[in-house]
Amino acid sequence: MCAGCAAVTAVSGAGVILMSGDVQRGSVCSSDPVSALIEELQFTLGEGPCIDAFSGQRPVLESELAAAPTRWPTFSPRAVDMGVHAIFGFPMVIGAARIGALNLYRAEPGPLRAEQHADALVLAGVAARAVLAAQAGAPPGALGPELEASSDFRVVVHQAAGMVSVQLDVSVAEALVRLRAYAYANDHSLNAVAQDVVARRLRFT
Predict the structure, then answer these.
(1) Smallest Cα–Cα separation from 157: which of 187, 197, 184, 186?
(2) What span, in angstroms and rounded, lies between the C-alpha atoms of 194 and 159?
(3) pLDDT tens for residues 16-33?
(4) What is the DSSP string of 17-72?
(5) How is the beta sheet containing 97-106 ordered, strand by strand?
(6) N or C: which end of the chain has fewer CB within 10 A?
(7) What's the pLDDT tens digit per position in 152-175?
(8) Distance in angstroms (rounded) separating the CA atoms of residues 156 and 145
């Protein structure tokens, strides 16, 4: 799906992230290693085009990422270092249901052409319907087999957030913020920090 989105819109890469509420649940797919790293960065840092596109329910377009370092102060410099010079997030919505966001990036700066923008809007809707179709018929609280096989939902992060919530007597949302802050301050991935918490090698007190 993501490789098709990148090909249709003629960009360097694409990824699809699912979200619920204000929490990023994980990656459905990515077209290439850079797209996968973009999704990992957004997941760890809690900022980036997909986060903003989902929360604002509108396309988020940054045609010259290096020229806008304050828009996402922790995400942008790392993304630029990976060769990302233009990035675009499109919300995935079906009716009143908010699903996540489609992320597109380019290795060179510049805005999307009008036809690329229009295609991305259509593809975000197609991706949302594909996710809902893959989830149809799954038991409550479980992933559909196709999503479970192809996605990276980082269940360990949500387990760790629950554990930190108990340790610090804070909400799960606040616990996730603490996990992200620790990961960023120590230059670790959020997933690695979560694994340490779940394995009881790391405790928040």
Answers:
(1) 197
(2) 8
(3) 998 876 555 678 889 999
(4) EEEETTEEEEEEEESSHHHHHHHHHHHHHS-SHHHHHHHHTS-EEES-GGG-TTTS
(5) 23-30, 13-20, 97-106, 86-94, 60-62
(6) C
(7) 556 677 788 888 888 999 888 788
(8) 19
C-alpha span between 50 and 11 (Å, rounded): 16
Amino acid letter, residue 181: A
Do residues 91 and 58 lie in contact, with contact meaning Cβ atoms separated by under 8 Å?
Answer: yes
Contact 145, 157 (CB under 8 A): no
